[in-house]
Design a protein that fits this description.
heterodimer, A: alpha+beta, Immunoglobulin-like, 2 domains, eight-stranded antiparallel sheet, 47% helix, elongated, B: mainly alpha, Rna Polymerase Sigma Factor, Chain: A, Arc Repressor Mutant, subunit A, globular
Chain lengths: 260, 162
């Protein structure tokens, strides 16, 4: 391959306009230490700085300097030991290793990316946070699945059906219940509570209701709610609509109840 | 003569905040017009300028005088950041920020229109050579040649103009 195409690529590269395979190709060429292209690039960079100098003068707003200087003043001590600097060096070092050349040429390439490293780090952090959230959600679901399997394996577990009542006749629920281990309540078709309200589960023994957990439902009217163990016999399970924080004795309408 | 730009950058790398103030005063005047030209909106431009100088302070130790002048160094950083912002602005889709078409007095105006156009679309508009070819409905090879000829001519003009 003649050298001519690289001279053309150098101009586009200096203008930030080289894209795709050609960009990779040119950077690899630079990485081989082509003195002519390094020199051309350096001259083009200086030319473009001259172009910037010729733009009509505009005075930057004073607050910019104030803000920069305030942040600079707040920089603790020597930054060479800071993590940011180390990660920057790592990034530059990696670029050098990938192209496998003299530090000089690698630096010439890396300095074009350096300004983007901060943005990339922010994007990476966002993706990582998103993955963590997804992982947590999956762990939750896995935890529920494990609980349910353990409950189903135990012959002492009962499956109790709750039917919709009052304002939500089409709602339904199933409770996997083990008096000693606790259980898990699955709800379907229950409308999401209005703002400031939540659903509360009750055990009723000898006509006496006791709170057994406050929960809400998702947009599709479903809920999956662990229920703590309860030593005494339970006659009826019921769900009522209550103020958000829950109450110690039911005040709202019954929306789900088990048959006696 | 006051401190040379490279000396200011070296002092910043040593953590000298005063050097940063002097550096700002000298180079904000050079970079701000470029950033304004690229992102157009003054509030966005001020934001980008602040980011550029903060990053310069942090990256001062990576500056190598052998690779180019402080002017070329900071102009490249400012341009990269401004183009990043421009892409975000375009991505917001509020207003399409038209990539230039206003006369710049100076060397650019001494180029043939076809060469000036591709250089402005790339340098101020942040378009790649492929995007420029699509936009102008010209073969990619033509765009590349115009860029190179334009930039080479610009280099000669700058060398002969004091």
């Amino acid at each position: 391959m003649s050298h001519e195409p690289f001279e053309t690529q150098a101009a586009a590269y200096a203008l930030g306009a080289l894209d795709g395979d050609e960009r990779a190709q040119f950077e690899e060429h630079l990485a081989r230490g082509c003195a002519a292209c390094v020199a051309a690039l350096r001259e083009f960079d200086e030319t473009l700085a001259d172009v910037a100098r010729e733009l009509p003068p505009t005075i930057p707003p004073a607050h910019v300097k104030t803000t920069v200087m305030r942040r600079v003043a707040a920089t603790p001590g020597r930054r060479l030991s800071s993590r940011r600097w180390r990660s920057m060096r790592w990034a530059v070092g990696t670029a050098a290793a990938v192209v496998g050349v003299s530090a000089f040429v690698a630096g010439l390439v890396a300095s074009r990316y350096e300004a983007r490293i901060g943005a990339m780090a922010r994007e990476t952090a966002a993706i990582r946070a998103d993955l963590r959230a997804q992982e947590a959600a999956l762990r939750d679901r896995l935890g529920v699945a494990r609980t349910v399997i353990a409950l189903l394996r135990d012959p002492a577990t009962r499956i109790i059906t709750l039917r919709g009542a009052g304002p939500s006749p089409t709602a339904s629920a199933r409770l996997l219940w083990h008096a000693r281990e606790g259980g898990h309540l699955f709800i379907a078709n229950l409308p999401p509570p209005s703002p400031g309200k939540a659903y509360e589960l009750w055990t009723i023994s000898s006509g006496q209701p006791r709170p057994a957990g406050v929960f809400t439902v998702d947009g599709s009217g479903q809920a999956s709610q662990p229920v703590a163990a309860n030593p005494g016999p339970v006659d009826v399970w019921a769900v009522t609509l209550e103020p958000e924080g829950g109450v110690s004795a039911p005040t709202g309408p019954v929306v789900l109840a088990s048959s006696r | 003569m006051a401190w040379a730009g490279a000396e200011l950058i070296r002092r910043m790398a040593d953590g000298d905040a005063d050097a940063c103030g002097v550096f700002y005063d000298r180079y904000a005047r050079l970079t701000y017009p470029l950033v304004v030209r690229i992102v157009r909106d003054p509030a966005d431009a001020a934001d980008v300028l602040q980011q550029v100088f903060w990053e310069v302070w942090q990256a001062a130790a990576t500056y190598d005088p052998a690779r180019g002048s402080p002017e070329a160094w900071i102009v490249m950083r400012a341009r990269t950041r401004a183009i990043d912002r421009l892409r975000i602005i375009r991505g917001r889709g509020e207003t399409f920020v038209a990539p230039v078409d206003e006369a710049v007095a100076g060397a650019l105006d001494r180029l043939p229109d076809a060469q000036r156009e591709v250089i402005e679309l790339a340098y101020f508009g942040g378009l790649t050579q492929t995007e420029i070819a699509e936009r102008l409905e010209q073969p990619l090879g033509t765009v590349k040649t115009r860029m190179r000829l334009g930039l080479e001519r610009l280099r000669e003009i700058m060398k002969t103009t004091p």
